[in-house]
Amino acid sequence: MDYPFEPFKIKSVEPIYLTTKEERKKILEEAGYNVFNIKSKYVTVDLLTDSGTGSMSQFQWAALMQGDESYAGASSFERFEEAVMKYTGKKYVIPTHQGRAAEKIIAHVLFSGQDGLVAVSNTFFDTTRANFQFQGAEVIDLPSPKAKDIFSDEMFKGDIDLEKLEEILKTRGDRVKLITMTVTNNTQGGQPVSIGNIKKVHELAKKYGVLLHIDACRVSENSYFVKKYEPGYEEKSIHEIVRETLSYADIVTMSAKKDGLVNIGGYIATDDEGLALKFKEMLILWEGFPTYGGLAGRDLEAIAVGLMESLDESYLEYRVRQVRYLGEGFKKAGIPVMWPTGGHAVYVEASRFLPHIKKENFPAQALVVALYLEGGIRAVEIGSLMFGKDKEVEHEFVRFAIPRRVYTRSHMDYVIEVMRKLRDEKAHIKGLEIVYEPPYLRHFLARLKPVD
Ligand code: F0G
User: Fold this and answer.
1) CATH of the domain at 271
2) pTM assigned to the model
3) Atom 9 of ligand 1, residue of closest alpha carbon
4) Is 81 found in the same domain as 110?
């Protein structure tokens, strides 16, 4: 079977409002050719992000009713804390309203008021990078050389470059405060990270006295890849692999909007009592009392259940294979996709797909616009529009991020069908130019227009 059986039945449905091509043409014009400006009711298949967009199970919905909304000492926190302790193996658990709130707190505690500190990573996600920089840290990405060839079959392209890491630790070790391993590696095509790589990073971190932070948003999905493809892990359970992965970390942060299978939430977890206390001090200032941390009691309940559900192997098998099915559909249609597909999204290389559009005319955004016009599909540009102002952009990616437990095979077939049509008519797809851009994170608010 090339398509995984959905291991659930649908109990509640959300209708999709269908638009015509004429309507979408107008909607795009009004949105300034930026899909962030389009109302979700006008989107047929929404692959903008896998963050906070998943479906909750009947057990999560039932758990919501147990929400204890007390300001202090809520019993919902006890259930949340127990679940996070069980999931991560860490002793101290600090709830936050989402991932970037956890990042803001650790960044403040580790970097604030100290000049010249450095943080290195297999690749920082944008919010992590921005939070660390905001506190004055220098941030350095060290993606594995395996990630260079984006079309090769090699596994674990999410790893860090160990040689370069050791070189930096040797030469600037006294300034390096933190190593962040983003698992899976979202900005590098959602590629998994091997435990072997994390173990070596842990050894280097100990040798040079540097803290190891794991950004664990998608660690359940990562553990599925480890079980399937890393020798020695075939017989381990997903939970054992998650626990081993996180055992190497001094600090874990997680946006529960991904593998927590909820619409909002996050946390920090650590075994370090001193750090935990400092994190809690900032939590009270920015998020709330340590037994709710910016969340409602019912949110804590939903996370407690969702984290455990994400460890279910039949769910993960369906999840990862659904992503692969979409990627394979594109590949068979001759569309250039980053390979292998990762855990949460398919990344299409748009400058290869649309070679007639110059980099300065945003080929990936042009494809995003064409996808919406043709099929009402919303994907996201990860290329020159998003990063071109701040750094040299190597690849013009369009990311098709798949929400968890939301879409079925026929939705995936529809997306493949629309991409096939675009492949046949791609000579007509036009590049874009910016007519307005804000000073920071321009892709969210930019307005564009087509160029001939
Ligand atoms: N770390 C990673 C690896 C992420 O992918 C995200 C969010 C965050 C941290 C921040 O978490 O959104 O809860 O504050 N990624 C989303 C995405 C937004 O679309 O990839 P948050």
Assistant:
1) 3.40.640.10
2) 0.96
3) 99
4) yes
